[in-house]
Each structure stands twice: as C-alpha cells, then as structure tokens.
Design brief:
Layout (H helix, E strand, L loop, with lengths): L10 E2 L7 E4 L31 E3 L8 E4 L2 E6 L8 E2 L4 E2 L26 E6 L5 E2 L3 E6 L5 H15 L8 E5 L15 H11 L9 E4 L7 H4 L11 H5 L2 E4 L8 H20 L4 E4 L4 E6 L6 H18 L3 E4 L2 H4 L3 H7 L3 H20 L10 H5 L5 H9 L7 E5 L11 E5 L5 H11 L3 E6 L12 E5 L2 H6 L6 E2 L1 H4 L5 H16 L6 H4 L16
Parallel strand pairs: 10-11, 10-12, 12-13, 15-16, 15-19, 16-18, 17-18, 19-20, 20-21
Antiparallel strand pairs: 1-2, 2-3, 3-6, 4-5, 5-7, 8-9, 8-14
This protein binds calcium ion.
Calcium ion (CA) binds next to strand 15 and helix 12.
C-alpha cells in the first residue's frame, strides 16, 4: 500500500516570480484536485492529471508568454495554457542559449562568509601535502590492450597480497579505452593524456605509481608520465621513468610470467601504503566533486539545494568544491560569470563554454542534446529547466578558479572551482578524479547505482519514494525536504557531517559496501585512427 499517496496535495514553487509550480505528491495529482490554502496555486482546480515532479500553470498563460521557474524563463508557451493545466514539454518552446558576449563579469560579490573552524577528518597525508580519504594502490595502464592482464593481476594481488597489508583499502586497475589507435598528436589529445596522468596522481593513491604498458602503444609510459610529473620513490625513476611492467619485454615468457611480474612489483608499493596511518587533518583538505545524474524535477528542489548548502559550508571550512557539467550550466552562464571572483575567472568560464559550444557544433547538436527520456518523464521539460536546478548544487560562494578538462588543481587553488567537463556521469567523475577529487557527491532523482572504485561516492536521492525503494543504494534522502520533514539547512549540515565520517573511513557509502563502480571513461575530443 502506498500510504504517501493519501497525503494532501502539495505543490512547490522555487521563486516568487514563478508562474508554474511542481506537484510533490507521490503518484502525482488527479484532474479535479483543488489545491488547498497556503500552497502556491491555492484554490486552483487541476484541469489535467499532473504527474509527480511535473509543472502546473499557476495563472492563465497566453501563447508566447514566458514560463518562469527559478525566476527565469525555462521556455515560452506554444499555445494558450489555462491556469491549472499540466505544463508539459510539448507546450514549451525552449529559449535560445545566452550569447557568450556581453556577459556580466564578476559583478556579484557574495558577502564574505564567516569561516567555519574546528571541523576535521581522519585522512592519509601524502608527500605533496594533499590528503587521501582512502588508501588505495592504483595500477596505471597506458593502453586498453593490457586491461585483461591487469584485471587478473589485480584479482591476484587482492587475493594473495591484500590480506598481508591490512591498512591498504583496495587495489584498482586504472583501465580505459585510450592509448593506441588514436591521433596522439592531434591538438585535443592532451586532454585524455593529462586526464590519465592526473588520475594516477589522485590523492587517494598515496603518491605510489605503478604502470603496466604493452610496449608498442602510442601512449608510451614516458609520454604519460614524463620526468618531473610523478613523485619519485627512488632515484632510478628520475632516469628510467615510473615503475613500469612492460608485457612485451623479452623477460616475459608466457602469461604467468606477466601476472607474476605485476604481482611482485606491487609488493613495495603495498608495503609503503600499508605503513601509512590516518591522522587528524582540517576539513579544508577535502576536495569534493559534485555532480548529478538521472535528474528529475526534484533535483533542483531538494538534493541539489541541500548539496549547495553543504558546498557553502565546505567553502567556509576552507575546503575545495568542484562543480562541472558544461551542458548543464550553459543556460545559467550569466549567473556563473557574475559570481566569478575576478574578471579572469569569468573569462575562464566563457572560454571553456565557448570551446564546448564549438565541440557540440561539430556534432551538429547543442546543449539541448543533454536531456534524457528519464529527465522528461521526471518533469524536466528541457535543458534550460534542468540547468537552473543543476547549478544550485554549487551553492552561493564566489567561483575562485576554473579548470579545463583533465587539469589538476594546484594546492593553492581552494574554494569553489568550476571544473569544465561534459555532463556524462562517468566522464565527469573521471575528470573530477583527475582534478584531485578525494570525495564525490552524486545527486539523483530517477536513480542510478553509480560508483567509483577510486573515491567514495555519496549518493543523494531527491525523493523519498526513490530513497525507500533504493534503501541500500542511496546514502542520503533529500526527499525529506519536499515532505516537509527536514529543513534545507538541516539536510545540508547532516550531509556535511556525513562527508567527514565517510572521508575518515568511519562510514562506508553503499556503493563501497556493494563494490559498485563504473568504468573510467576518458574524454577524448581528438580523432581515433
Ligand atoms: Ca552528470
């Protein structure tokens, strides 16, 4: 029995300017429902059945009128829409994207937020000063050809060696589809190459680099990790490059020799990782990547605002928060450039989004190619509406830095960072790992079992219905906000405290518990051959 469906009608409006509200009730509301007093649209009678998360018109709209949500036009009425109607995507003409000229640059100065002090977590301090939330041996691969061998070697390391090194959390093969059969000197090839390089140096891997190479591939180990780009554990590496097992070496006779070679070479790395202990470090050492996937109309009402509140807390604590997803911020570009801390940062945002516009243009699409059938079924009519709900997870701080795809944050780059990435969940997560993320927050309304082997992923459900059905996959239920059972502030604070627990290893995420993880997917805008 669905007890929630018997609740009184509940509608939500995000901004007093909005002429639509969304229906919060599980199962939606039938035609003929009278909206009770005290709600947006009080006294209105629904003319159509309106599904959960979908919009109803709060007033009569004429053809061509702007439909306002979050106080901005998310589309224009294709026909007259009487008050009480279901405002579905077919009734909306999508607004065109804001031109990238003449934007307000660094015009809004968010008031300096009061620093939050005294918050700490237990992390693994690395030689370069960065901090890991997990203690993982990563096996870097230069090319997809070695993936099968590395997978078996990793399985053997886990079975035979990991029990001997109890302070090491996991062993992960950094497998990917790049490395050969690609135009490696094309102008954009530096993106997948530096992404892979920087993932190898993620703070959760303790500065240990072990590479497995095939031998004849285009992406040679010295090109992936040139001298000076990786931490040396002994002087030989300065001349010979990173510790590398090459499968085509004459020394290997037979498959077992390759496996043995990788397993043996893992030992010293595991020994050093195993000697590490968690120590108390300030919350400012968190590098939190936020993204959403499988979004619905509640993403921008519950989960993303709660994450935004938490992002502000993190920034006040001196931590770094990265938000991303080019196609999902494109319609909100004005809000981002105006919130940039300096005109240079604003120009960085414009540069990245202009590059991405051209990238999409090559494929003869634009940012509207982003939305999925699930987004639309969940009430998001188009990318303009999705974008407004998406950027809320960045909170309200000034944007202090911009990263291009695959770039790594420097230690002095703190605060709120726009890491320009595609919105594709796995590609965004992969690029945030390269940027140096040590903790990931992922919001979802439709539901996804998304996880990463390299970094804990805290998943936030936008609706109580999803949190109930996926009770052993969702870490946080932000749907309580729409249910009126939790304030946005309480949800943000509780997420902040959960992050410190997860970062400290005191709590595992559901994705860690079930060992659910997605593949690394490198963003390769360059040609393959
Ligand atoms: Ca995404």
């Amino acid at each position: 029995m669905n007890t929630v469906a018997s609740r009184p009608p509940l509608t939500l409006r995000m901004n007093p300017l909005d002429n639509v509200a969304i229906v919060a009730n599980d199962g939606g509301l039938p035609a003929g429902t009278v909206l009770p007093a005290g709600l947006p649209g009080a006294g209105l009678v629904l003319l159509d059945p309106v599904p959960q998360g979908h919009k109803l018109a709060l007033q009569d709209l004429a053809e061509g009128d702007a439909v306002l949500r979050y106080g901005v036009p998310i589309g224009y009425a294709r026909a007259a829409i009487p008050a009480g109607s279901w405002v579905h995507e077919r009734l909306l003409q999508m607004p065109s994207a804001r031109a990238l000229e003449g934007l307000p640059m660094a015009t809004v100065k968010p008031p300096p937020a009061e620093p939050l002090s005294g918050y700490t977590f237990e992390g693994y301090r690395n030689p370069d000063g960065s901090v890991g939330t997990r203690n993982i041996l990563a096996v870097t691969t230069t090319v997809q050809c070695v993936a099968g061998v590395v997978a078996q070697a990793v399985a053997r390391i886990k079975a035979e060696l990991l029990p001997l090194y109890p302070n090491v959390d996991d062993v992960v093969g950094l497998e990917h589809s790049y490395g050969c059969g690609v135009a490696i000197d094309a102008p954009d090839a530096h993106i997948p190459i530096r992404t892979l390089r920087h993932i190898s140096l993620n703070p959760n891997f303790g500065g240990e680099v072990l590479v497995v190479s095939l031998g004849c591939e285009k992406l040679q180990p010295a090109r992936l990790l040139p001298p000076g780009s990786f931490p040396l554990v002994d002087e030989r590496e300065a001349a010979t490059g990173p510790d590398t097992v090459c499968l085509q070496d004459d020394a290997h006779v037979g498959f077992m020799s390759m496996l043995d070679g990788i397993v043996q070479r893992a030992r010293p790395h595991l020994e050093r990782l195993n000697a590490r202990r968690r120590e108390t470090v300030p919350a400012s050492e968190l590098v939190v990547g936020v993204q959403c996937g499988g979004s619905d109309a509640f993403s921008g009402v519950t989960a993303n605002p709660a994450v935004g509140f938490c992002a502000d807390l993190l920034v006040r604590a001196g931590a770094t928060v990265m938000f991303s997803e080019n196609t999902e911020v494109r319609d909100a570009v004005e809000q981002l450039t105006s919130r940039a801390a300096t005109p240079e940062v604003a120009e960085g945002i414009v540069r990245e989004l202009a590059w991405y516009d051209r990238y999409l243009d090559r494929g003869r699409v634009d940012r509207s190619a982003n939305t999925t059938p699930g987004n639309k079924a969940g009430g998001l009519s188009n990318i303009a509406e999705k974008a407004m709900g998406s950027i809320i997870k960045s909170g309200s701080s000034a944007i202090s830095h911009v990263l291009s795809p695959g770039e790594k944050l420097r230690r002095d780059q703190r605060g709120l960072v726009y890491a320009a990435t595609p919105a594709s969940d796995f590609i965004c997560g992969t690029l945030q790992l390269a940027a140096g993320m040590n903790l990931h927050i992922f919001t979802t309304g439709r539901g996804t079992p998304y996880g990463l082997a390299e970094c804990p992923v805290v998943k936030v459900a936008t609706r109580t219905d999803l949190a109930r059905r996926w009770h052993d996959l969702m870490d946080v239920n932000a749907g309580l906000i729409a249910d009126g059972e939790m304030t946005l502030e309480d949800a943000g604070w509780s997420l902040f405290r959960l992050l410190l627990d997860v970062a400290s290893g005191r709590r595992k995420t559901w994705a860690e518990h079930w060992r659910l993880h997605n593949a690394l997917v490198l963003f390769n805008p360059a040609p393959v051959t």
